[in-house]
Amino acid sequence: MANKSVWNDNRFWRRSATWVTGFASILLIWLTFDTSAQISMGTNEDLQNGVTKRVPGPTVINYKITYEMSAKRGHEVPVIGGNDGKGNSLFQEKEKFFGRDDWSEKEAREMLHLGKLGSQAKNCMDCHTLLGNGAYYAPDLTKAWLDPAWGPNGTMQAITNKPTKEEAMAEFLQHPELYATHARMMPNLGITKEEAIGLVAFLKHMSSIDTNGFPRNFGKMKGAINGK
Amino acid sequence: MANNHLTSESKQLATWYLTFAAILFGAQLLFGLIAAIQYVMPGFLYGILDFSIARILHINALVVWMVFAMFGSVYWLLPDETGIETIGIKAGKLVYWIFVAAIVVVVLVFLLIQVGPASDTTIWFITEGREYIEAPRWADFGIVVVALTFVGNLFLTGMKGKQTGIVTVLMADMIAFAGLYLAGMFFTDNISVDQYWWWWVIHLWVEATWEVFVGAIAAYGLITMIGAHRKVVEMWLWIEVAMLFGSGILGMGHHYFWIGTPEYWWEIGALFSALEPLPLVAMFVHVLYDWGKTQGAEMNSEHTDEGHVKSVIKNKPAFTWFVLNAFGNFLGAGVWGFFHTLPQINLYTHGTQFTSAHGHLAFFGAYATILVGMMYLAVQGKNGIKVMKNTKASIWAVSMITGGVMGMTVALTIAGYVQVIVSRAQMGATWAAYFDGQGGAWFTQAMDWRLIMGVITFLGFVLLAKDLLTTGKNPVHER
Q1: What's the mean per-residue pLDDT of chain B?
Q2: What is the pLDDT of residue A98?
């Protein structure tokens, strides 16, 4: 070739490709170490000592969880055990979960484990989204625990004839075909009572994960009914 | 296989892989239709083949037919590129049957058993319940064995034969492709950690290693179909590798906005994934540039007058699909991906039909197109055809499939828009908000249109299958 230059030299581009790929991969691996540390699951001790973790320990099910605006971060964050007024967790206010607010770390971990296994064994993500990932045939479950529909003024406790949110959820999971709210209804997946309790623990735990403000304005829209 | 013109065992194996890929492609569309019908008529097959199962089969058939077609494509081009028969082809053929048998078993289990109790046994033998890679753990190990054999074939052949730029890129790419699968083979109670690594498989396959694979296949196609200059094509290929991996690897950050991972992924994900369309533009420009250049050179050398210009394209239907790939990749992966890749927008579009619209057009534009093109190249080679012409069926097939997928994409985009406005922005993403969005007239009409367009896509597939199967007997092609 008469006009040989670096710009049409295959070796130059091959080396560039190698360097670029190597650099991007190393950066990704480095960020993975940092992220892994930040998203590792917390412990009961963390909760007792008031340490905010992006993914709290399983005993977070003993606490009241809300989803409120953080003044500092400019979006909603999970608030555990009460709000200090600025959107920081106080880790004080407890909330009974199936009648107890003193589930030990071991018990809570076992429930969460069963729930996470169940979420996979029943293919939840092939209709629902979890953390926004999955299928779009059914509602997102990221903050399902905080959904007003399951709260004291919501319809689900009345339909299932259960006195608490967690019992209503567990009942629904075992017999979804009996409590259908829409033509598109959840099928019976053979979920046992024990599995249902695990799944509810999994959902409550998931609602405490810091998702950087996703979803936005969850359950806060009181005025907007029927999209009007 | 009476009039089989293939002397290479590697190419024979390639036709096996591509044939099974085409069958799975059909299965993918069928289960997609079932899922689409369920959006319109929720009672359809309720309790028998629920949406979750139809969707599992829809998306897993998609991934597996593409993997089959990718393996087939590599077995097809290896003898051409390296100049030798693929080493260890007997082992390659053996694992092909293991792969097929494993898939049949997995599909039957999905269809007949569907779900299991919340236990490790379910994860090992029924379903792993993780989108796109639901196949149970035992099958994961089967896939690893198959992938290692395939990578072994590729490496042994590449190292002994002529190691062209295309083969070098494929070697590096395919080992990464196989290795990344390992990131999806573990269980954790921590859903954030689960999703973090799940994306290593899904994103780094689809938005990095698969894209590089497409670059390599496109390079091979340009050389074989229009006689493009290898040095130029391979230079482009290296530039594409740099751009694809440079943007795609850290572009993974756009999946780490909302899964519990730190905020810095907003900036990293936004920046690098916004760059992801660039190599796709480059690939499109490159295909057109090479086509124009070789056609121009042909015209100059032949001194033909405008009315009798001879086309340089040796396989019209395959080239049609390759050009469609160049544009579809840019439109589906690039434009539809960029729509919702910035965190400010993704906060509202994440987990809506927007993603589904992008998924349909991107998988089709970036991968289905070029792999169908490879099927046409294999049919050409198998039947000893010198110049393969378009037929009525090939033109109708490509038009109906492309029109159908484009129609589904537009319908799903409109459905996604309703979800973003009603369910997310207006009503705040609750259970009630979700169903309010789903019940809106714009949403339900969009779902009707998606089903209609899905049927058109499927009919196009039937024509495609007919065209591929009857090529051997069709006298229109130059032999």
Answers
A1: 94
A2: 97
Q: Do A10 and B38 touch (CB under 8 A)?
A: no
- For residue B308, what pLDDT is reported? 63
- Cα-based torsion angle of the residue sequence B328, B418, B341, B170 in order, rounded to the nearest 10 degrees: -30
Token pair in block for residue A99: 């009648």
Whether the Cβ atoms of residue B94 and residue B148 lie closer than 8 Å to each other: no
Half-sphere exposure of B145 (CA within 13 A, CB side): 16
Report the run of H or E that residue B199 belongs to, with start and end. Answer: helix B191-204
Report the gap between the CA of B451 and the closest CA in chain A (Å). 15
Question: Measured between alpha carbons, how far is A105 from B345 in angstroms, rounded to an integer?
Answer: 38
Rounded Cα distance, B85 and B79, in Å = 5
Q: How far apart are CA A44 and CA B439, in angstroms?
A: 43
For residue A215, cis peptide bond before it (omega within 30 degrees of 0): yes
CA distance B296 to A149: 67
Please give the Cα distance from A191 to A174 (Å, whole number): 5
| Residues of chain B positioned with their CB less than 8 A from the CB of A177 | 47
Please give the backbone phi and psi of residue A210, each rounded to the nearest 5 degrees, phi first.
-80, 105
Residues pairing with B315 in the sheet: B388
Q: Residue A40 — φ and ψ, nearest 5°? A: -65, 145
Find which of B45, B259, B276, B286 to mutate to test the A interface (most A CBs within 10 Å of its CB): B259
Q: How many residues does chain B have?
A: 479
What domains can be seen in chain A, in order of their start residue?
Answer: 44-207 (1.10.760)
Model pLDDT, residue A35: 97
Specify the amino acid at residue B140. D
DSSP letter string, B109-157:
HHHHT----SSHHHHHHT----TT--S-HHHHHHHHHHHHHHHHHHHHH
Q: How far is A55 from chain B (nearest CA, A)?
A: 7
| Radius of gyration (C-alpha) of chain B in whole angstroms | 22
- Alpha carbon distance A143, A203 (integer Å): 8
Q: Which residue has the tokens 């089959």?
A: B68
Cα dist. A183→A187, B40, B44, B51, B52 in Å?
A: 12, 10, 11, 13, 16
The continuous run of DSSP H or E covering A143 comes out as none
CATH no., domain B313-479? 1.20.210.10
Q: Residue A144: its chain B contacts at CB < 8 A?
A: 431
Q: If you measure CA to CA, which chain B residue comes closest to A136?
A: B352
User: Which helix (DSSP H) or strand (DSSP E) does residue A76 occupy?
Assistant: strand A76-80
What is the DSSP code string of A166-223?
HHHHHHHHH-GGGG--SSS-PPP----HHHHHHHHHHHHHHHTS--TTPSTTTT---S
pLDDT tops 60 at residue A1: no
* Segment A75-91 mean pLDDT: 95
pLDDT of residue B314 exceeding 70: yes
CB A47 within 8 A of CB A63: yes
